[in-house]
Amino acid sequence: MMVHTSETVRLKFFIDLLMHKRHPVMLVGTSGCGKSALLNEKLNSLPEEYAVCNVPFNFYTTSELLQRVLERPLEKKAGKNYAPPGNKKLVYFIDDINMPMVDQYGTVQPHTLIRQHMDYGHWYDRTKHTLKDIHNVQYVAAMNPTAGSFTINPRLQRHFSVLHFPSMESLNLIYSSLLDQHLKSTAMKFNPTLIRMTEPLVQAALQLHQKVTSTFMPTATKFHYIFNLRDLTNIFQGLLFCTGETVKAPIELLRCWLHETQRVYGDRLLEEKDLEILTKLQVDVTKKIFEELDEAEVMAKPNVFCHFARGIGEPRYLPIKTWDDLSAILQDALTTYNELNAAMNLVLFEDAMAHVCRGTELDQDREKKLDESPPPSQGKGPP
């Protein structure tokens, strides 16, 4: 679902004007911010006289591969002229334009091909070495400045009108709208006091996300420390599992948010000291925004939410009471499984039980991946 803000409406207005004049447009923003979604929404709404060709770039995209893709929707007209079929206008949508490899000469070959066309209106036939004049086409592009080669050649960039998005105000509005709609839903039956949690909870989420992205940077050994708006969205997606029956007080909703941040950020961290830093960031943000709540109660352990906290047959998103209670539930489920299948002698220590809880969240259409390290027929005891 696309949540429009004043900023996206402004961007759409300028994109409409620029595309109407066939002027190249480029949206710049971090991964997961909605650049491609916004442009796709625009391209899908174009009248029938337009055709769209998606051109996704990656590290291995070459000028030869790109030219094949660009020429695919074209047909030969008179002489050396090529254009879309009939009187159609063709829009090339280049996603991740800064992803292709930079060669030993500092050149990005696909960029050079596009720039040649923008400068001169043609490129060369790779077999006959003759000119091909390309007509009735235009470009829109999306770029993530934190990935790939980070920038593109100024000789290419000068052709585009570059628009950046989104701002922090837009993010606040987007996530506030999603959470507020859920908390105000009559079907969810939330306590009215929880509705007032929307604004401070979104502020806390945005502040923590900023701190996490600036604190945990990717390195050679921690190359997966890349946190973007998809992670922030996953946190709020987890909050949408809550209902009025499972969360009755503000502190319970806050603890659910802390659990989601631990799943999204903490599960990706490699070292114990990194987990300690994350906990400190959580405490700092919580104390700053939720001063009236008791810190000890908010940060009490265990803080694990799952869909079987009250039993396997009751799929409600609730916090576990104690590790012993969770162990009893899982042991009962394991016994039932062993009666019908080959026996599994699993050791249900705390980390193993927490891992099972993470796995159940994947079954709820969560956009995450789980690395099941031990073989399924074994268990490992604590070190």
UniProtKB/TrEMBL annotation:
Disordered as annotated region, ranges: 362-383
A GO CC annotation given for this chain: dynein complex
Comp. bias (Pro residues): 373-383
Highest taxon, organism lineage: Eukaryota
Pfam families: AAA_7, AAA_lid_1
Annotated Basic and acidic residues bias: 362-372
GO process annotations (BP): microtubule-based movement
GO MF assignments: dynein intermediate chain binding; dynein light intermediate chain binding
Residue ranges of domain AAA+ ATPase in the record: 21-166
Protein name: Putative dynein beta chain, ciliary isoform X2
